[in-house]
Design brief:
alpha/beta, Rossmann fold, 7-stranded mixed β-sheet, histidinol-phosphatase activity
Length: about 220
């Protein structure tokens, strides 16, 4: 029995949930239709290039959480799950999760997307443990700020080690599945790194290091 760790966006689901949430907010008329779309696209491109300014991105991404009531956010998230996430649930990803469960492995999703967006997705996938960016909450409302270290790039490693210490788990025999070269710091930490439908940079590195490469997309 080992720890099976999974990236979420474009790994277990065939979309980026952070970007999709931005598109959903645009469709609801909840954000500026010009400035927000331009920023959402720019930050997505920066992420893909490995040049994302995480602090600047989170300032934009968490602002709508602070500007709306928990009730409104919950109602929107239900619609978001149905329209933007459910169509991107990958059957092969669910099969992979099931195989690790059958082995008795502990399943963990670790993502650079915030917990408001991703907690219901992890629940939908039946994964009990989630490490995500934590939006700060005060008096029951989001503040628009981040609590703690964002789980992005090296931050994923830092957050994971803190989680391991808290849960009294180890990385012995651990797996990590990811599509992105941004996850190289964590891929290098585990015994079984797996590149899943990888971007070009990760594919090249995985081939050079003879890491397993697999696809969860339908053929």
């Amino acid at each position: 029995m080992s720890l099976a760790i999974f990236d979420l966006d474009n790994t277990l689901i065939s979309t980026d949930s952070d970007h999709a949430w931005g598109e959903f907010l645009l469709e609801q008329g909840a954000v500026d239709p010009v400035a927000y779309r331009e920023a959402n696209e720019r930050f997505m491109a920066d992420y893909n290039a490995g040049t994302l300014d995480m602090a600047a991105f989170l300032e934009m991404a968490l602002k709508p959480l602070a500007e709306n009531t928990p009730e409104q956010l919950a109602a929107w998230h239900q619609q978001f799950m149905a329209s933007k996430i459910e169509p991107h649930i990958l059957p092969k990803a669910e099969d992979l999760l099931a195989r690790h469960r059958t082995r008795g492995d502990t399943l963990l999703i670790i993502t650079a997307t915030n917990r408001f967006i991703t907690a219901p997705i992890a629940e939908r996938l039946g994964v009990d443990y989630l490490i995500a960016v934590n939006p700060e909450v005060e008096s029951g409302r989001y503040t628009g700020r981040v609590s703690g270290i964002p789980s992005y790039r090296e931050g994923k490693v830092t957050r994971l080690h803190a989680w391991l210490e808290d849960k009294d788990f180890t990385l012995d025999g651990a797996w990590f599945y990811s599509d992105s070269h941004n996850d190289l710091p964590l891929l290098e930490e585990v015994d079984h790194p797996v590149a899943v439908d990888p971007d070009a940079t990760l594919r090249q590195i995985a081939e050079e290091r003879q890491w397993r490469i697999m696809s969860l997309r339908d053929a």
